[in-house]
């Protein structure tokens, strides 16, 4: 039996077949046809079923398919399980795809290292084409190299030489591809002993940046040492007393802010003094909250275990003694044959803190030279560095990750105390320069200065936040509140676009338990919206309760969404509470949002059978916001239903008449017209008789 196509369908098939070769199966393989239509999942299946699925070409194609499927982890598994290809071109392709996979997983440093390896097997023309095709790679290369450099600066282990070798490899590729001022200057600063062009050397700051009289005098440094030693013993009254004697106001406010942070975990209420004096790095230290990792707990800054009752009692008893008496008491304890090595180290640290807090450098020097400095509390390490000008490599912990986290703290606080660690590559901590010079300082004169770059990016972000700037902040400054704000901005942006998986990725990179209340509120707000959009209403309610507990101002749109969720769950009283909280700040809301809030208040009261209250909300909305057509007319329709039910037919008809006259949608007009017809039937035929206003008692 023969089957024939309808002539119109046949004509369509012929036209499409002529216009689009993709339909011509005989002209394309099945794999080519699948690729044309981006059917990547089936294409991967076809490659994996091939008899020669393990050939380099097939392996690379399968990896590419997984990248097209947005499955970089699976692509990377294929690439990493494959030994290096003998063909340089194929090996370059394998490494390049590995770099793309790492980038897709958010591993920018690994991506750059894989791209670097891939470039070793590329010609200059291929290299230029590949690097140009990868979005934003120039900026990423710059930022990854910087982060690698900062890690290298904090390292003093045997791996430091390997780090430098990797740095030079990435740097040379950067110079080869882009050859801009940054790479030329970075090469000079990383390899200072090589012969260089003097023009590439960092130039001196002009203006008041280099004072003939330092901002922090030697006497001030001694007071800062005593402050930090007192903090290590949690003697905050003594710390504040030392700080109050600092001669320069910006320095005094900086260190008093540090003492307050150590005691309470709170940041300075304003940074006007640093803005007014153009102290860019001091401002950035607090604005970017470099101490963010210690917001929740400052235990690493204090001597001994703060939760140990016996230690606290022992410490407090000694602190009541005179200096000499306390030192003698500690020596007596140290001579005991029964104390452990750990206790002995703690007692020697106590002696060091006592000596430094009392300005006795001679006694402190003896202890400093024999103690394990990496085990000291951070405040005492800062005091020791400022006192003995010791190399940070002698103080940093042996764990590379801990060393990387601590290094910038010690370096910056040393600079704030009058001893700049990297005078050749970083601007002095107390650099004074107007805001308009920030860009040239951070990008030209001191391109390796982490705090200056933080200041520059933060200022730019505050003026005009963008996704690109947020990504840079999140990557470069993940250990500061600025980096966390970048992640929150990214999470908020993608959740608004309903990209919930990426939103969860950004949120999961943040430890919300360590956040101050304002940032924790932002984190919880985004999480609540993500959970609502993904249909997890019960989880969203739990998260929302955590938001309320923070005591911070809840965004009105989140309140509104939760109010609607409460109404949906028939929890009308809870919904009313949220809506009334919104209404208290109605002046900060758009008129559209004000009208919507009144409408949902009316809906809630109507559901609770509080029709008088509902009527008040509906009528107030219709009167006050006639320009908000949808909400005003819907409110009038809802009010008409109440009047109709009460037998007030004329009032109901008047309200419905306005709806019919002004509704922009056909459905609204038809619904209102239908109700008018129904009311007319209820009213029956009306006699138009002039009614007297006179009332007869009988």
TrEMBL record:
Coiled-coil intervals: none
Keyword Signal assigned: yes
Signal peptide: 1-24
Presence of the UniProt keyword Signal in the record: yes
Protein name per the record: Tetratricopeptide repeat protein
InterPro entries noted in UniProt: TPR-like_helical_dom_sf (IPR011990), TPR_rpt (IPR019734)
UniProt keywords, alphabetically: Signal
Pfam families, per the entry: TPR_6
Residues covered by region (Disordered): 193-213
Organism classification: Bacteria, Pseudomonadati, Thermodesulfobacteriota, Desulfovibrionia, Desulfovibrionales
